[in-house]
Amino acid sequence: MNDxxxxxxxxxxxxxxxxxxxxxxxxxHMSWGHAVSSDLVHWEHLPLALPExxxxxxYSGSAVVDxxxxxxxxxxxxxxxxxxxxxxxxxxxxxxxxxxxxxxYSNDRGRTWTQxxxxxxxxxxxxxxRDPKVFWHEATGRWIMVLVLAQEKKVRLYASPDLKNWxxxxxxxxxxxxxxxxxxxxxxxxxxxxxxxxxxxxxVNINPGGPAGGSGCQYFVGDFDGTRFALDPSYPAEGxxxxxxxxxxxxxxxxxxxxxxxxxxxxxxxxxxxxxTQDVPTAPWRSAMTVxxxxxxxxxxxxxxxxxxxxDELTKLxxxxxxxxxxxxxxxxxxxLSEQKNLPELLDVEMTFLGVSEETPFVINIRAGVGExxxxxxxxxxxxxxxxxxxxxxxxxHVAFAASARHEAPVEIANGKFTVRFLLDTSSLExxxxxxxxxxxxxxxxxxxxxxxxxxxxxLKALSVPKVDRITIHKLKSxxxx
Length: 482
Ligand code: FRU
Known about the structure:
The chain is mainly beta. The protein is built from 2 helices and 33 strands. Strands 22, 23, 24, 29, 30, 31 and 33 form a 7-stranded antiparallel sheet that branches. Strands 13, 14, 15, 16 and 17 form a 5-stranded antiparallel sheet that branches. A hairpin with a 4-residue loop joins strand 15 and strand 16. It is globular. Beta-D-fructofuranose binds next to strand 5, strand 9 and strand 13.
C-alpha cells in the first residue's frame, strides 16, 4: 500500500481508504483498499472498495459525505458518501498517458461503490494532474477541490455546486521547496484557528526533495477567500516548512467531516519513502500508516507553525501502571533507565528535561539487538534534534535507505525546557518534541525482541545538568486486528 485516501468520518466510523495493490507487495494495479475504525486505534479490514477499472488505475483522492445530496447520488433521504479520485491511464501505442478526475458513490456506509456514469468529471488532457481533495466551503456554499499539476509544481483550485460540474478558480505555486526535479502530489487545504483567528493550511507533499531526502510533506500557511490561497506574510522567504522532518512521512492528508463537537483536524501519513519503499524488508505485507495525529497552529516568534500530537485515543493502548522516574539528576535518570530491562517492542515514552543549555547536548539511545542503537540527539547549541538510524538494524536492503541515516529537525529550547514523546513499534519510531512543534518519523529494522533505553552525554560541564524532570515509559498493547 501507499497513500492514505478518502479519509472521512461518517456515522461513528473513521474510514481509511488507501492506495493498494491487491496482487502483490510492490506498487501496481492501484486500487482503493478500505479499513474502518470507531476509535482511530483499532482497525477492521473491509473488502476492496474501488478496484482498478480495466486499464484505469484508481489513484489517490478524497471522500466526502454529501449531506445536502447536491450530487443526487443519495437514496431514501440519506446522504451518499462520494469518493473523488484520479483515474490514471498509462500510455499505449494508440493513446497518451492521462490523469483525470472521477467520482464513485456509496449508499451503504462505504461498503459498496458505484462509478458515476458521467466520469470523468474533470479532464484537461494532462498526464500529471492528480490527487483531488474536496471539502464543503460554508462561506461560499459550494464544494472546493484542490489538486496538483504535479510536474508544474502547482496546486489548482476548482469549485462545484454538485461534485459533478467543476469550474477552475485559481492556482498556487511553485513555492517553498520547488527545486527540479521535484513533483508535487497529494495536496490538502483546511482551516485552523489560532488565537481566535482562522488561518488556512495548504499541505503539498513533494517527491523527491523532502527534508530527509526523497519524499516529504511540506505546508504553507495563509488565507483562503473562497477562490484563492494567499501565503501569510510570515511564511519564510527561503526554503520550506515541513510537517515531519523524518524520512518516512508522505502523502499525508487530513480526515474530512470530523464532527464540529470534536473539532480536531486529524492527519495521517504513509510511513515510507519512494526512495526505497519497494524493498523495505517486511513480509508478507509492505508499508504502514503513521499514527493519526491531531494538528494545531501556533503563533511563534518565527511565524505561524503547525504542531501535532498523536490522537489521545492511542493512550488506550497503554498498559497500567507505567514505569515512572520521578525526577532527579541526569546521572540518576541514566541509572534508573539502565534498570528498566527487557522492555517490549511497543512503547510510548515521555521525557522532560530542565536546565538544558547550549553546553549540554545529550542523547537518548533506543537499543535493540546486539549493537543496534537508534540515537535521538538533542543539540541545543545548533537548535537541532537529530535522529540517527545508522546502527538501528537492517539497512542494507537499499542504498538509499542506508544513505538516509541522520535526520534533523529544528527545535527551539525556551527556558531550558525540552520535552519529547516517542512511539516505538516493531519497525518504526515516531518522535514528537517540544509539544509537537517538531516531528520526526523513521522506519527502523532492529532485531525482534527486547528493547532498552539509555541516556548519554559527552562534554557536560556539570553532570547534574540538565535535570530530568520526569520519564514515563508506557508499555503498549498491540492494536493489530486479531
Ligand atoms: C503519491 C502518489 C500519488 C498518486 C499515487 C499513485 O505517493 O504518487 O500522486 O495518486 O501515489 O499510487
